[in-house]
Amino acid sequence: MSNFNHKFKIPFIKMHGLGNDFLIIDCRENNYKFSKSQIILLGNRNIGVGFDQFVLMYNSDKENIQTFLKFWNSDGSSSSTCGNATRCVADIIMNETGLSEVNIATNAEIIKCVKLTNGQISTNMGIPKIKWKDIPLSVKCDTAKLPIDGNPLATSIGNPHCTFFVKNLNQFSISKIGKETEINALFPERTNVQIAEIVNESKIKVKVWERGSGITMASGSSACAVAFSANRLNLTKNSVQIILDGGIVNVDCKKDGIWVSGDIKYVFSGKISSLLFDKLE
Q1: pTM score above 0.90
Q2: Which whole-number Å values give the CA distances from 269 to 14, 27, 31, in the listed order?
Q3: Is the peptide bond before 147 cis (omega within 30 degrees of 0)?
Q4: Is 111 left (phi over 0), alpha (psi -120 to 50) or beta?
Q5: 20 to 30 Å CA-CA from 26: which of 43, 60, 208, 271?
């Protein structure tokens, strides 16, 4: 058994937020490096670990920032932010430090996270951007009514989102619409896609397609994009429940940003075999 154990060298934590799952590696003491092909292999649910997003935690040189995060999708492409993963990492940091409020930096922004009395983590995803250049879009157009069949809305929550509102969610395929819309020429950096059905002014049902990952059971930034877009069209109140395949998150559209809160779960921890990448270039 001892000969077997020494071959495992990189520790990781597997977590999920409503089924939106992550492989999280702490690089604060050991600066682990991963190639795109290694990330793709780790993301494979049959021969790797499997995840929607791959997350690396780093030390921050800024005051009052507990950690700096980098994100990748399961296809090896990078992502600038991930709401559910940030909530998961916030819980790790809070358990380490005993803090109930932490600040986490990403390539997109500094994200404030607060532990609620019910144990859930609430995260401020910042003020959404709606100017076409900020999302970004490839041409100037009305971001509340895109020139795409269905007239969806575009929003940036640190990453681009395209939101379709429909009367009956079950009549539409998130697989088909997500796959087509992600690579639409209007989005030069590709886009996350949501199909949303307004249940009432406080509740929205949502299906999610994440760029670089495909269908996911949940997405924090997608939930924020849907809530903000519905509020932008005066379809809902400022505070709404977003019903996703993996469960429910609460989103509050406030002046200081869009707050999303919900459950997170630890799944397991382990170590990546040093032999896993042997045949990769």
Answers
A1: yes
A2: 6, 15, 19
A3: no
A4: beta
A5: 208
